[in-house]
Every structure is written in C-alpha cells, then in structure tokens.
Design goal:
Layout (H helix, E strand, L loop, with lengths): L3 E7 L2 E9 L4 E3 L2 E2 H4 L3 H14 L5 E8 L3 H19 L4 H7 L29
Parallel strand pairs: 3-5
Antiparallel strand pairs: 1-2, 2-5, 3-4
Length: 128
C-alpha cells in the first residue's frame, strides 16, 4: 500500500496526515503521540476513528500539525485521520459519518470589533 495523505482543520489548527501500512505508531511533528498529547483525553480523541473501525494497530500515521491550541489540533487530527481512512476504504464512510468524524467543525473565533473590549461585549454605558 502506498502512502495516503489527508487534511483536517479545526479553528486555527491544520493537520496533514500520511497513513501507511504498519503497526499502529502515530508520530506528530517527529514526536510520539504520548509526548505530543500527554493528556489521555486528547489521545482518545485522536484515536477515535481508528478505534471505531478497529484498525488501530493496522496503520502507521505521520502527522504535520500546525496552528491552534491542543484541543483544536486534536480535533483537526481526528478529521484528517477519518478522511484518510475513507480514502483507503470508502465502505468505512457511513460508520465514521454516523459518529460525526467526517464533519468539519466550521466554528471560528469571531473577530474583536473596534470600540469594544471583545467581539460582542460592550464597554459599560454611562449616561453622564
């Protein structure tokens, strides 16, 4: 099997994934997943599509992760892995779609407006 690549995005994070036959090793920015995401919750988020299909020990995954915070990065990576798995085997798409792993979460941070402390919050109004 050749290397399959896919892209996942979430907030400001971008994950480029390269999936090849292997024994379940996930390398993120040349570091092991346990080093990159010390939190077991984030590791779980990343591995969700693999565990859903039961192929966690079948593929080696190399990842370039850029931008955003760790939660956004983990969710971007989850989307990228799901997209790569569908490229490998299109019959897996309904199972991943039912779990919600094929949907790009398009929510972005709203920009701060001038004359306001935040995007929607206003400074306290004073009549006098």
């Amino acid at each position: 099997m050749e290397v399959i690549n896919a892209l996942g995005r979430r907030k400001a994070a971008v994950a480029r994934v390269f999936v090849s036959e292997g024994n379940g090793k996930i390398t993120i920015n040349k570091r092991d997943i346990e080093q990159y995401f010390p939190s077991s919750i984030l590791q779980y988020i990343v591995k969700q599509p693999l565990n859903t299909l039961g192929v966690a020990e079948k593929y080696d995954i190399k990842v370039n992760l850029d931008g955003g915070g760790f939660k956004g990065q983990a969710e971007a990576l989850r989307l990228a892995i799901a997209r790569a798995l569908v490229k490998i085997n299109p019959e897996d798409k309904p199972a991943l779609k039912a779990e919600g792993f094929m949907t790009r979460d398009a929510r972005e941070v709203e920009r701060k407006k001038p004359g306001q402390p935040k995007a929607r919050k206003h400074f306290q109004f004073s009549k006098r």
